[in-house]
Amino acid sequence: xxxxxxxxxxxxxxxxxxxxxxxxxxxxxxxxxxxxxxxxxxxxxxxxxxxxxxxxxxxxxxxxxxxxxxxxxxxxxxxxxxxxxxxxxxxxxxxxxxxxxxxxxxxxxxxxxxxxxxxxxxxxxxxxxxxxxxxxxxxxxxxxxxxxxxxxxxxxxxxxxxxxxxxxxxxxxxxxxxxxxxxxxxxxxxxxxxxxxxxxxxxxxxxxxxxxxxxx
Length: 216
Prior knowledge:
Elements: E1 9-12, E2 21-24, H1 26-48, H2 50-54, E3 62-68, E4 73-76, E5 86-93, E6 98-105, E7 108-109, E8 113-114, E9 121-124, E10 131-138, E11 142-149, E12 154-158, E13 163-167, E14 175-184, E15 187-196, E16 202-203, E17 211-212
Antiparallel strand pairs: 1-2, 3-15, 4-14, 5-6, 5-9, 6-7, 6-8, 10-11, 10-13, 11-12, 14-15, 16-17
């Protein structure tokens, strides 16, 4: 048995001063042909794919936060956001803090995170309206939340006390898709924001640069 490279080829030396001649074994030649065939199939798949041949799909998601003390039970609305774009908010507030939060994705409301006992303020987003900026204040708990939309509307909840944050998505043409955070009892103790392309985004493949957005 031969080790290393000599395991896949035979080396023969001719007599005299002739250079060494390498004779590849049938097994090595078959292996080489299989590798070349695999590369050819991969190249064919890339060239014939309508998506990859028209554009390079880049990841446009980003994440902001979390803001707050961070004690308590973790939550996220990831997964629920697949039901549709954000179309509504229900916020429970006190004179000092954000107590609970609930988000509607498409036509379906998420569960309530935080307090479920107090009355709530409800906001409905219009057709094609998306949250594109979030501001607020926090300390041990989340004290204030301000949502701004691409249609110029602003929704303010809670009380303006504590440290500030003012957030935008990292990438252009992306919007708020879902939230995450923590709650303890009847208080939201921290919150984070996740940005991505609007729900149902389909990139136009005809080279015009126009994007089609699926209706809520």
